Write the structure tokens for this entry.
Amino acid sequence: MGFDQSDADRLDEVMLGQPISPHGVASLTGWFLDPDRGGRYAAGVGAHAVSYRPGAWTRVEPWPGALGDRGEAGRREVSRAEVVAVAREAASHGDWRAALVAAHVWGYGGTGFGRFRTERVLAQPGVGEALEKAVASLRTGDVADAYEVLEPVRHYGAAFFTKFLYFAGAAVEAPERPLILDNVLAAAAREHATAVGEAAVVADAASTAAFVWRDSGWTSHRYGVFLAWLRRGTEVLVAEDIGWPSEPDLLELAIFAGGWDGSSAPAP
């Protein structure tokens, strides 16, 4: 089958019209009301932290001092709020490379290849200028342009440069806040788009969803649809009157953490 943009547009329309199924609302509500899961983030996702070893990040420069002495043994944790603080410091002097490093440390966590991949991105010609230009676009609310600025940077990839955009956007209080899009989030979008598309008898719903919500290589337009999807899904959850926060990054975290389990299943 050849790709048909009109089918993709129709699928997006249906998906945004029903961003979460009733079954999905039930599963996400259960996740949020569990104090050991989503309940920890009722006041926001700033406390969401990952574990890492500072010593595994030797030679990466510039290194944010807030992330610890790389000569120390053992592990530390870094939270979303702490990465935002590094990004705010970057905003004060205009060099965003340390914010990129902090976003990568948070994103890679305890994996063993984060240092190598981060060094490879930092070594790309003009990366500092690209980060600065992307943040300038965020300040004006042009998230699509910020995405397109970073998309050509070799060895980066949207799963990580959207992490940078997310933290930078929070630091500068961007009019439209970016969110993190990776293969886990794309898989959830693909599952949901397929389910609602087939229910609405959208032509070639499954194959279209598989193409537009593939595991990587999303366009800036697709990223915009993703942001709209999570914003509308958040509106649905806020309306449930369970205390769900209005910022859509909690839904992003919920999907990544497994709170989206079975959310594309039909209502009983």
User: Anything to note?
Assistant: The two ends are 33 Å apart (CA to CA). The beta strands are 49-52, 76-79. The chain is about 55% helix and 5% strand.
